[in-house]
Amino acid sequence: MSGNIGNGIQLTTNATGVIVDPNVVGPNTYGTGALTGTSATNGYGNGGNGILVEGSGNYIGGYNGSVIPQNTFSDNQLYGIKITGNNNYVFNASIGLATSLTAVTGLGNGAGGVLITGTGNSVGPTPPAFSTTTPVTAYISSNTGNGVTLTGSSNTVTGNYFGYAALTTATTPVPDQACNTGFSIANSGSNTVSSNNVGNCAP
């Protein structure tokens, strides 16, 4: 879902219960590098956000990966994920990196990794509706701006990895490889932020 002048995906205000997984939003087909021929989107894979979530009770994540291992929201001109709705979940995601969780030049999102202005949203923990023996949170690295920006209230950001990246394909991501240029988490509301991994990147 790349090459769009606006958002890659948009869930409007009446969207609820939607599962978005797995998709490549912004980069090339397999999420290994930047999309080519992007003059109409100022050199980015999409000219807006990777996904704009205006609805409530949606799931931006899952465990349906095959050739595409998880959602990848990278190389978008604005945010990888912007949430204005309520009670949505983000988990098992690569935000600013390649699908392999490696840091590739040009894949960071232009305004930041995630922006949340709504309430009751969650970034990190696998929601109760999903059953898995190996839960995965989100890797949020290499973005221009903050990794996560919270301006809403009662949101939760827990257990994620900021600035981590795999050194080569199929290796475990390690810290301090691809810090976001701003803070890892910028929290200006009444939200819960805990147990995130930032290494030596700005907290």
Please outline what is shown here.
The protein is mostly beta strands and 203 residues long. Helix content is 0%, strand content 24%.
Secondary structure tally, helices: 0
Question: Can you give the mean pLDDT?
Answer: 95
Can you tell me the number of structural domains? 1
Helix/strand structural class: mainly beta
Count of DSSP strands: 17
DSSP strand (E) fraction?
15-25%
Indicate the radius of gyration in whole angstroms. 15 Å
Distance between the termini: 31 Å
Which sequence of SSEs, written as H and E, runs from N to C?
EEEEEEEEEEEEEEEEE
Largest β-sheet summary: 6 strands, parallel
Regions with little confidence, pLDDT below 50 for 5+ residues: none
Helix content: under 10%
Largest beta sheet: what is the strand line-up? 1-4-7-10-13-16
Morphology call: globular
Would you kindly provide a written description of the structure presented here, covering whatever features stand out?
With 203 residues, the chain is mainly β. It has one domain. 0% of the residues lie in helices and 24% in strands. It has no helices and 17 strands. The strands form three sheets. It has a six-stranded parallel sheet, with no helix packed on it. 53% of the residues are buried.
